[in-house]
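Example is below:
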Amino acid sequence: MAWVLLVLAGLFEIGWAVSMKYADGLTRPGPTAITILASIVSFLLLALAMKTLPLGTAYAVWTGIGVVGSAILGIVLFHESRNLPRLACIAMIVIGIVGLKLTMSTAATP
């Protein structure tokens, strides 16, 4: 269940990052409200996932999902660069996320 919460937290991180771009420096009320709400939900879900997942793994996976998703949506929605070195770097982040999941040992207990 912690992994489901962590993936959801990462998806909400993507949501607040993209909505922040649409918020235009937090000057547009609708996207600004979405940014704030999505960031709160993302942090809460991350906190719940961290109850059983190790800190380093959970935080790295959460930020990795956010980075990869935001980069891909930046390409799709905002026509950001899609050159080969950039795509290769995104792929390396995905490999790192998968690697952390596959090499994770037992859950952390405080």
About this structure: Residues 20 and 27 are 10 Å apart (CA to CA). The chain is about 75% helix and 0% strand. The helical segments are 2-22, 29-49, 55-78, 84-102.
